[in-house]
Amino acid sequence: MKYEWKKADKELYLPKNKPVLVTVPAFNFFMMEGKGDPSSESFSEQVGLLYSLAYSVKMMPKKGITPEGYYEFSVFPLEGIWDLVEEAKVKETLDKDDFKYTIMIRQPDFVTERLAQDVLAGVKEKKPHPFLDRVRFGQLEEGLCLQMLHIGPYDEEFKSFSLMEDYCRKHNFRRKTKIHREIYLSDPRRTQPDKLKTVLRFKVENSLSSD
């Protein structure tokens, strides 16, 4: 049976457009760190490389390679962890060139460190690119988080974050860090800005028990 993240992990990837608590377990990712404006050509190249790796894993059996534990799956969506470079945190205005990020695509459980390195080596040989040396494979676990679906332009995400911050105040939760996570359910190249769907998420803790 094919693993469909939209069905198997619905609560993690398809929340409603209102804040909701969720516990996020550890998952494996191909990821790449960088900084700068996400509308740049460089950023697009990095995204393309991550998808090349993800589809290389998916298509392995068609190339005569079936890893131990392999199962059919839908490629997971692109995700991003967003922060600001240190010097930008004291500025009054936001400059997208000051963004600091880790973009990533989750991998199925059967992908081990060794398999990931084999996939990386194969992509480097077939389609070499200097950015591939910045890709790493690793595990991330978020734990207790607050998330919601944002519908609309990326530049209007502050409206949804305001709702999430308000939820925290009303329900005795505290945001643990200004760093946040985004999961991209829409392709911005094919979707009107007002139709874009993005999951917004940040880590929280109970403000009463943590005092």
From TrEMBL:
InterPro entries: GyrI-like, GyrI-like_CCH_Lin2189-like, Reg_factor_effector_dom_sf. SUPFAM superfamilies: Probable bacterial effector-binding domain (SSF55136). It comes from the Bacteria. Residues 19-202 form the GyrI-like small molecule binding domain. It holds the Pfam family GyrI-like. This is GyrI-like small molecule binding domain-containing protein. It comes from Desulfosporosinus orientis (strain ATCC 19365 / DSM 765 / NCIMB 8382 / VKM B-1628 / Singapore I) (Desulfotomaculum orientis). The lineage of its organism: Bacteria, Bacillati, Bacillota, Clostridia, Eubacteriales.
